[in-house]
Design a protein that fits this description.
The chain is of the alpha/beta class. It has helices at residues 13-31, 60-72, 84-88, 118-126, 144-153, 190-199, 221-236, 241-250; strands at 3-8, 37-39, 43-45, 50-52, 77-81, 97-102, 132-138, 157-162, 170-178, 181-188, 214-216. It has an 11-stranded mixed sheet, with helices on both faces. The mean pLDDT is 93.
Length: 258
Amino acid sequence: SLDLTGITGTKGKSSTAYFLRSILDDYMMDTWGKRSGVISSIDTYDGVEDFESHLTTPEPLDLEKHLRNALDSGINYVTMEVSSQALKYDRVTNVELETAVFLNIGTDHISPAEHVDFEDYFSSKLLIFGHAKNAVVNMDSKFSDRIIASAKDAGCQLYTFSMQDETADVYAYGTVSENNGNSFMISLSEQMAKKYAASSKQTSSDDNIEDRDLAISLPGRFNVENALAAITVSLIYGIPVAYIRSGLKKATVPGRME
């Protein structure tokens, strides 16, 4: 009953969650006067509870409580970070994601206390696709071929994003990096354009997101990748372009990048 987005990856989960949250907040506040829900390693908001988080993905009973609170509060969209530990140890069993986002894979979290080796870590991450209807994958990630194959094997509708490959469903180009952020333009594949047109909640004719300047107020090329992930999810949900642009621009992420 919720448009629930799950985000996994070695790096960038929180940043991507905050980009998407900012976009969805702008849309929801203007439409229903409510904020979207978030369950992240930074904070949790479900329409009832609002607190600093102490676990990236809550234990199952807590997680289900937050989802129920969001639904009962009239919140349409919830964005959550999904850790490899949560996937490995079944914290998200029976949680149905509208969209799963796979950002990247690295060699963190390999230790006797977490994952015994890289294969255990990677295969745990890939379990997210078994919970999802749509998959959003970073084509610029290491092992992207395996990630994409896993999403397809799970039966997900696949959408990709990239700063390097023009064949991606959402491709960023013309990136200009400055001390106070980044600006860039995007082009969409035919599949992405059709999906957005079919699900669009746009009420005006000004709905062209392609070949127009988009901007984020965070430095670092990697944050453009995180923004692309949020843009792709927003297009899947048909969020009007005006809110994508405004949400990206005002998004901030508490934490290390401060």
